[in-house]
Amino acid sequence: MAEYKIKDLENLTGIKSHTIRIWEKRYSILSPDRTDTKIRTYSDNELTHLLTVSMLNRNGIKISKIAKLEQEDMNKLLWDIKVNKKPEDSMDKLILALVSLDEELFKGTMNGLIEKYGLEKTFVNHLIPFLDRIGIMWLIGSINPSQEHFMSNLIRQKIISEIDKQPIPKENSKSILMYLPEHEWHEISLLFYQFLLREKGVHTSYLGQSLPYPSLLESIDKLKPQAILSSWLTAVDKKFVVSYFKQLKKDLPNMKVFAGGAQIKSNSKDLQDLIIEVQDIPELLEQLDR
User: Fold this and answer.
1) CB 266 within 8 A of CB 236
2) In this structure, are residues 136 and 11 in contact, taking their beta carbons and an 8 Å threshold?
């Protein structure tokens, strides 16, 4: 079971520590344990309860009333909010879905956001902040790999579903081959880029995760794209990253090579003559036209 400090609750719920203390003292909303040094610690159940209280409160129910509700009554009210598509509740709903492994809640929340804003704004304004909070939860050890995999796969499925709805751009348009190198499995950002590129009429060929280098060369020879794009998030040795792109430059001297991700950013100085670092879609398209 995870253990949170009050600052962790503030980061995960958006509720100020001062407010949490007031709710705790005045209304007994939470009952934290205390360490030998008197530091408050909270459990998964208390995080879930606080998210529930927060959603009820933001939907017009006073804290004083919430504090008097039986759990069954809170659950009934929470259900009404779960099926409500108010975007301001999205962060709490997504974190609640993560903690409780609730696929129905996640899909309902995502569908509501995409219906209202479209995938691009949903990803930028809602999913990226949510993924940042997942990062916080990883750092404090409050989620396990199964929870992270559960949520990542649901996000992945949703992006693929939206890509599947798009028309396939004609092959005589701009073309990019997209892939993840061997050792790399984190494809959410690359899938999102594929969605954005297809929205702009770019013909994309996505070859998936952990593609062996010889297979990459064979695919390029067959598909003849204008450019290739990869994402590098998993920590690898700097020498490996640099030597990989040096070899690519040697094998494909005239190919435009785009790459992004944490490993590219941290080694950008050593890679500046070998690749074009991806910052955003408009810049990528501008570079493609040069």
Assistant:
1) no
2) yes
Residues 13 and 148 in one domain: yes
Q: For residue 153, which amino acid is it?
A: N
Report residue 37 CA to chain centroid gap: 36
Asked if the structure places residue 1 within a domain, the reply is no
* Residue-wise DSSP of 104-115: HHHHHHHHHHHH
Q: How many domains does the chain have?
A: 2
pLDDT tens per residue across span 160-201: 999 999 998 887 778 999 999 998 998 998 999 999 999 989
Confirm whether pTM is higher than 0.85: no
Give the integer Cα–Cα distance in Å for 272 and 264. Answer: 10
Residues 91 and 14 sit within 8 Å (Cβ to Cβ)? yes
The token pair at 213 is 């280098």
- Confidence bin at 224 (pLDDT 50/70/90): very high
* Residue listed under structure tokens 């950002």: 189
Taking the C-alpha atoms of residue 69 and residue 78, their distance in angstroms, rounded to an integer, is: 12
The pLDDT value recorded for residue 266 is: 86
